[in-house]
Amino acid sequence: MSRRRVVITGLGVVCPVGNTVEEAWGNIVAGKPGITRISKFDASAFASRIAGEVKGFDPAEFLGPKEVRRFDTFIHYGVAAGLQAVRDSGLELEREDRERIGANIGSGIGGLPLIEATKDEYNAAGPRKISPFFVPGSIINMIAGQLSIMLGLRGPNLARVPACPRGAHCIGAAGRRM
Predict the structure, then answer these.
(1) What gap in Å lies between CA 56 and CA 65, rounded to an integer?
(2) pTM of structure
(3) In a 10 Å sphere around its CB, with 0-12 CB exposed, 13-18 middle and 19+ buried, how is residue 27 labelled?
(4) What is the phi/psi pair of residue 119, to 5°?
(5) 35-37 and 50-52 strand pairing
(6) Distance of alpha carbon 38 from alpha carbon 49, whole angstroms
(7) Partner residues linked to 37 by β-bridges
(8) Model confidence over 84-140: pLDDT tens digits?
């Protein structure tokens, strides 16, 4: 078995307790919960009406208006966390060989709000109302793809969907590629 070492050099967070590492850590240390009443949809038919929702997030801080419109919310979150992590790493990309730098993103699922909205548009107005950006706006690999485009990364561009262990899976896969 190989004893390669992997070093995490930068962190990024978009989650129910905060939208930056500093905010999330501060709220965790202060004991502020991320679980609140559901506000993003009508939960009155459900037995539980609480959840961890991301609040106060502005995708325009990370993406242009076209990308904000075209991409599902989970892509907004992933790109924001990825850009934060690169910034936090201190890596000066213009001084690095971008052929050796890639994006490896994990997600349990993604695109459901856009898939649901597209289905509603289809039901209301037919197939001609389906956006040509529907598929790229809802698939998981668009997080890694968008980060690679934005940062000029030309190394491996990967998306993994292993459910709960996705972070560890991405780290392990990246370590094996070294």
Answers:
(1) 17
(2) 0.90
(3) middle
(4) -60, -45
(5) antiparallel
(6) 6
(7) 50
(8) 999 999 999 999 999 989 899 988 888 899 999 999 999 999 999 999 999 999 999
